User: Fold these one by one.
Assistant:
Number 1:
Amino acid sequence: MKSISEAYKDHPINLHNIIPIDFKKVHELPDSHTWPSLGQDSISDTSHDQVIPIIDIEDPNIVKLIGHACETWGAFQITNHGISISFLDEVESQSRNLFTQPSQQKLKALRTPDSVGGYGRPRMQPFFPKFLWQEGFTVVDQSATVDQTSKIWPNGDHTPFCHVMEEHQKKSKDLANRLLGLMLDSLEITKDDLRITLLGSSSSPEDLKSEAPHTALQLNSYPACPDPNKAMGLASHTDTSLFTILYQSSRSRGLQIKVDGFGWVTVPPVPGAFVVNIGDLLDILTNGRFPSAVHRAIVNQSHHRISIGYFYGPPCNSKIAPIPKLVDSNHPIRYRDMTWREYIGIKAKHFEKSLSFAAVNPEIRTNAQS
Ligand SMILES: O=C(O)CCC(=O)C(=O)O
Ligand SMILES: [Fe+2]
């Protein structure tokens, strides 16, 4: 069975699209990074700030609150989750530390065209004619990360970074498990129902535990930008995860979610909170009940913004299909069965139209693609 990292190898990206510019040397927005058609669309409307709910994980109504947020917005912010602000500050500061290294050092950890982990531009880059104002570092495999970061920081200085990222992945995994349970409860779906869809009826509950979920930590860096209204951090997209747990630095706004009837809504940073957004895989598994959130990151002139996304996925050999209990005459089946690997292939080819390609009837579009 191929791993997901191996599945990505089937869809290599052009090297030109991987190497970020040296942002420190750029004082005017280059034409290569100027998005002419953004106009007013890039300006956030602060009056809509409170649309995406902020939920305390210890709230007695947590199941209802999470279910409502997922169905309505495909996203929410979660507080009181047990991961301390001081720890998150450390994760942010180690990420900042990596991105403030000289360009020639960071390039030593450049991901190869067919790999997921390491330093580089976002995987979505090839879908756009203009470059994004972003550089990223993806942590998938701990030993590869140790290897790559030891090239960025010679003399063993990579250890604190690697240690904190490993801890963050562990803590995020526990939180993701807890959130998944709450999301399923809100739909009256058990973990067994989910397991049978993902791994088949001959699998056992131990299989879901022993088959490690596929996860990745995505560190995003958006340096202060000379002309933010003409630049784009990460363009409109949905995540290829069950859901994503995102930490954003509290100093500057940047994340926006597209909401029907509102347009682009800014998700303001709440100190210590995570943004949770539904990804394509949970959209498919819930038969569209939890829509994958369309989102993007805009940039600003004064701050170097950092965000850290934990992409939570099912085991690598999973089948992705609507859970039968969520399909009935009122909720006709929206998506066809496929393996996760097949979906990665669809995404690599069709990007934002991927959910339509997974739909039984492509005319029935999810609101993830409006
Ligand atoms: O930086 C952000 O707020 C969004 C990051 C994001 O969407 C991603 O990493 O997929
Ligand atoms: Fe995203």
Note: The domain at 45-316 is CATH 2.60.120.330 (Jelly Rolls).
Number 2:
Amino acid sequence: MTESTSDQQLLYVNDQLSDEEIQREADLYGPLTDSVRGLIAATLQTEVGESDVRRARALIGEAASLLRAKAIPGPYGVRWGASGRKRGWGNAADGLRNAVAPPLNIRTDPDGRARTDFHLGPQYEGPAGLVHGGVSALILDQVLGDAAVAGGTPGMTGTLTLRYRRPTPLGDLYAEARVDRVEGVKTIVVGHISGSDGICVEAEGVFILPRWAREAIAEQNASTAG
Ligand SMILES: CCCCCCCCCCCCCCCC(=O)SCCNC(=O)CCNC(=O)[C@H](O)C(C)(C)COP(=O)(O)OP(=O)(O)OC[C@H]1O[C@@H](n2cnc3c(N)ncnc32)[C@H](O)[C@@H]1OP(=O)(O)O
């Protein structure tokens, strides 16, 4: 679907939507995403009888057909509105329209910090009653990446190193990250996830502004200067 760098760049779109239009979309689609999250948990936890499971399947199929009647053909991409407000609504870690994403509501500070109180339900289980290690990695990748963005040096994850110090319980959790240092095009960010017993997973990430973005910025600077 997005095989080349130029395919990727096409998915960064300035669609000029006003803040009001963006808010209207958020108010419409956010609750839909929450409903689907509820459906995912219900699918996992239900113990109803066979006929009710079959009926639920038919209803879900009907809902999916209704939604598919008009739909974008591929990934959502990253979009900006007229005021510069960014929407990564397809993002697997925190996308407003992505029911696979745990709702993270990451808060950031301009000094390169990010933090979030979040809740992981049974759909994020790995070992019995515990968070899947890959899910912890997903969340830390996003929180560390957002810290890099907040500090003004965004980048793609080049390397993410994790240390699983103790099992992460499902339920209420907290994650935070801060920019440790910037080395040229690389931003090194550190962070962790903690539960009620303390830090469960520590992370260090190297975020790199990709070559194509560096070239686009250099081109833009040259045309502004000229
Ligand atoms: C409009 C702009 C948008 C920009 C984007 C913003 C995204 C905002 C997202 C918000 C938060 C998201 C949080 C989740 C973020 C993901 O999930 S990103 C998805 C996972 N990551 C990927 O798919 C990345 C795949 N890899 C790549 O695209 C490229 O290899 C990279 C990482 C961009 C580097 O490519 P490059 O820019 O061509 O790198 P290159 O010029 O060869 O090297 C530059 C420097 O980086 C070092 N380096 C290269 N690769 C690595 C590596 N893997 N590890 C460590 N160091 C490395 C080099 O040694 C070099 O160091 P110095 O010589 O400068 O000291």
Note: The pocket of Palmitoyl-CoA is lined by residues 12, 141-142, 145-146, 149, 154-159, 184-186, 206, 208-211, 213 (CB under 6 Å).
Number 3:
Amino acid sequence: MSTEEAVVGVMPARGVLLDLDGTILETVGDLATATNRTLADFKREAVSEERVRTWIGDGVRALVRFALEATGGCDDALLDDAHERFMVHYGDCFADRSHPFPGVVEALDHLRESGISLAVVTNKAAAFTEPLLEATGLSARLDVIISGDSVARKKPDPAPIRAALERMGLEADQAVLVGDSRNDVEAGLAAGCRVVCVTYGYNRGEDVSTLGAQRLVDSFSAVRDLIQPGDRAVESA
Ligand SMILES: O=C(O)COP(=O)(O)O
Ligand SMILES: [Mg+2]
């Protein structure tokens, strides 16, 4: 490690891959609204926002399955119907309360201005990812967007990470992934990226310090100065 990096501890990179829900956007409020409207359609009891928070991260179909299992049971036919209802309800409310976490807009602007490319890699369905990024003002700040249904497999599989890197024209060791949960850390490491894990996100109550990420940050603001333009070879020298 060079003297400069030993002092400031930066992660040199050419690109940053960002998880969406729980990392750059606080989305649990609108996801809970859509979940409860869906449960009401099937005469199920409402669930708390805190419970919904623990069901985010594997895509919306998994969220609906968790909600049905928690309120009386789930089978394939019911899941298909409820998933369809959820898509309608979430379409009505996905941007009502969702907003960037503190420090996100400023950090993304700073990274971009310093020449680092930015991608979102989320397990969320594409039908919502792009409108949500547009509504929250983040879309114009991103070079690449990969959703849960953009490639055949979702995180924790490394396939969506590799698809983003290919579109950015980067090798895995030129990129840092910033995520909030096991799916992100596993996918990022399996693809060969370095990983930063935020501690405030949707991590299902798991201690994220045990997942193998190179760094943990308590606020997205810390990402602003942690990642700087450069090549990893310098860091590991
Ligand atoms: O569960 C989802 O829909 C998406 O979650 P992610 O943005 O954290 O990948
Ligand atoms: Mg997430």
Note: The pocket of 2-phosphoglycolic acid (ligand 1) is lined by residues 19-22, 56-60, 122-124 (CB under 6 Å).
Number 4:
Amino acid sequence: MAISVRNLSVDYSLPHGTAHALRDVSLEIQKGELLGLVGESGSGKSTVAFALMGLLANNAKVISGTAKIDGKSFDLTKPNATAALRGRGMAMIFQDPMLSLNPVFTVGTQLCEVLRRRSPGSDRKTRIGMAEDALDKVKLSNPQRRMGQYPHELSGGMRQRVVIAMALLSEPALLIADEPTTALDVTVEAQIMREIIGLRDRIGCAVLLITHSLGLVTEYCDKLSVLYAGERLESGTVNEVQQQPGHPYTRMLFDCEVQIDRERHADASENRFTVIAGELPDTRQRPPGCIFNGRCDVSFADCAVVDPGDYPVGNDTEHSARCLRLETP
Ligand SMILES: Nc1ncnc2c1ncn2[C@@H]1O[C@H](COP(=O)(O)OP(=O)(O)OP(=O)(O)O)[C@@H](O)[C@H]1O
């Protein structure tokens, strides 16, 4: 079973114009696969997730887009599409686990509620057993005690495990993890990523991992899509894209990552990270031609006027990038 999103475009209306935050973004994730969606801050990653989950802000409008899950298509411009999509099984892990947890209920009550909604006929004792089992599976120590605790009594990493346990119990077809480890320290990050992989292995769901970290993507994901100013500039398997980036932006992102890694090992201050010079363009006035033209180090005259297509890279049919340099005459 594959999950796909086709031509997702989202606008935000602002006091001075309309920001075209996403433009024709398409993604495809197979069952059991982890797709990393990377891009710098403001590139539109969360907008993709929110559009799928029906969590967009009031000033947002889905201009186009279809999501296909389990062979069934949903028109994302329709107001009730995301409710129907959620009904087919989607769960989301946020950077802040408190967005998924209710502070006034115990962990046990919240986990049992997921089970009650999923199988209303189940008895309480069975639900408690299953909830404890889920906490055990995400390696939360002393599950019985945790069941009676409130979210504020747990650390950030423990809360994130509870959210993963909730996802485990809801058995989604698609799990969206939006910067799930950004607020956690590096050791906890690795543990939480392992739990997400464990969840994927147990229920065979597709996972969309939203992150600004290429390091996380190369370590844990099967495929990646690179987002820039609301456009998907490149997509392919992690190995292919890493070995042969088709887009200059992807190459620059990988160069930054290597630099960050070196500086980490040299124990340098976090502030010295290399960044790509320039800024994201204002999406209220998308420039003509390639959206990355203003920051590209290998652009040529046509890049300022011709909107590039999505061209294949190398011999891999899954690998493509939006760069005119890949156009074959
Ligand atoms: N409610 C809103 N109204 C107006 N603009 C918005 C709104 N929400 C997001 N945006 C803008 O849309 C663009 C994409 O934002 P989004 O949060 O999806 O990016 P992101 O890649 O997830 O960023 P980050 O990594 O910082 O979370 C940004 O320019 C952002 O300022």
Note: The longest strand covers residues 17-30.
